[in-house]
Amino acid sequence: MKFPALAGLLLLLGTAPAAGQERPDIGGSLYNGIGQSTATASVGGAAALPATRFPCRACHGRDGAGGREGAAPPIRGSDLFRATPARPAYDAASLRDALEQGRTPDGRLLASLMPRYAMDDQTFAGISAYLARLDSLQRRGVHPRAITLAVAVPPDNAATARRYAKALQAALDELLGGQPIHGRKIAVALLAGDSASILAGTEDAVAVVGLAPSTRLDVTAFTDRQVPVLFPLFPLAGSEDTTIVRGLMADRQDALRAIADRLASNKATAVTVIDAPGCGDDAGSFAAWFPGAGTRYTLSRLPLPGDHPRDVLLLCPDRRMARRILHDLPASSRIYGLAGELLSSAEAGRHHLVLASPEASLVSGAAPGHIVDVHARTVARLLVSALTSAGRDLDRTSLVAAIGTVRDAEAQLDYASDALNGTAIVSFIETKPR
Ligand code: HEC
């Protein structure tokens, strides 16, 4: 297993909540069901609920092109303010009627699946403006002769990001030799500065690629602004929305499942699960998620009771906390966990560690090398393939959708069978005490 190649990345895996997230605008909040909105919504005459429970996006799609749920029609400004064979053009007053009363400009009542919203003037102005912006929001970074992909340079992981951007550019040059795809050259833009200027820079990018682990900028900092995040350098959580996020290594849920399988195959019958404040709730949930046939899980607070347990599970996304706990665990225990959380805290030769590592699977395959370079070469192939199949009529949503059709034999990725990551393969890194 290639420790040095992974070490730089794993140093920053494990996170505190990302700062620097601004509140999305009032219309974007209502459309996407993010944050707060004062509007309410009612479906089929039922009691009114907060409108963010019924985000427009769920039925009309992130891009407003329609068709996600039932026969939800397209509702971009360019669709609504134009007459169709089925109805006259909307204006502000008739749009408000449609949202509040469910009535179209020609007086037809919309199907009851379309919620009836109640909103103040400010919220209505916000949602109309957002619908009008949907087209341009979708086409960010797509120019007549170029496509701009962004690599963000988080201040707390700048070296990794800069190295990544170079590697990606080199890999794209090698694959394409500067040739355009459907008439557009692929440009890689580096977004540096503080969190706010990085986020502002995404306004001119079709997607953020190869995001480096950072405690300042996480995936949602971008997706809340409708910027797709493609192939971060760290495992995703597993619950991300595949219409705006794609990864290329197994996610945290896959890794946890792999640990449960490993415990079973190691015939660990009694597992002590560390339950420490500050380490999140996964310890308590693990046994319920992955009930092992022959494995009994016992939640245990620190310090551990006198008898040294044989098998210990430590899940702790806060790396500083993880380091402290690991230091106090007996050398005689076999400690299971995630490489991203524990590897950088491991004291050489002191513990017996069994660490699930989606990252290691990436570099242990057919193409060894430094993880940043292997990752960048893989991403270049995936992007070229997706951009080629997405066609000339490209936007953010169609690019992310096109990844769903990609198969890459070399990296064993198949997005038709695993939509989020293309793989669920998890390697293990095992260190034995000297
Ligand atoms: C639960 C699914 C759902 C949600 C959530 C939803 N819609 Fe709809 N919407 C529909 C369906 C289905 C129709 C088509 C109904 C029909 O034609 O009878 C529709 C129709 C519309 C229409 C009429 C379009 C036309 O061409 O006449 C507009 C405008 C609209 N929705 C806007 C919104 C907005 C804005 C939101 C969020 C604030 C939203 N919808 C949330 C399902 C939904």
What does this protein structure show overall?
This protein is an alpha/beta fold. It has three domains: 26-137, Cytochrome Bc1 Complex, Chain D, domain 2; 141-230 and 372-394, 3-Layer(aba) Sandwich (Rossmann fold); 248-365 and 412-434, 3-Layer(aba) Sandwich (Rossmann fold). The chain is 35% helix and 14% strand. It has 16 helices and 16 strands. The protein has helices at residues 3-10, 26-32, 56-60, 77-80, 92-101, 121-138, 158-176, 195-201, 219-223, 252-265, 282-289, 319-328, 339-342, 358-363, 371-390, 396-403; strands at residues 40-42, 49-50, 116-118, 146-152, 185-191, 207-209, 229-230, 245-246, 270-274, 296-300, 311-313, 334-338, 352-357, 407-408, 413-414, 427-431. The strands form four sheets. A six-stranded mixed sheet has the order 10-9-11-12-13-16. Strands 5-4-6-7-8 form a five-stranded parallel sheet. Strand 9, helix 11 (282-289) and strand 10 form a beta-alpha-beta unit. Helix 2 (26-32) crosses helix 6, helix 7 packs across helix 15 (371-390) and helix 15 crosses helix 16 (396-403). The longest helix has 20 residues, at 371-390. The chain starts with a helix and ends with a strand. Residues 11-22 have low confidence and may be disordered. Heme C binds next to helix 3 and helix 5.
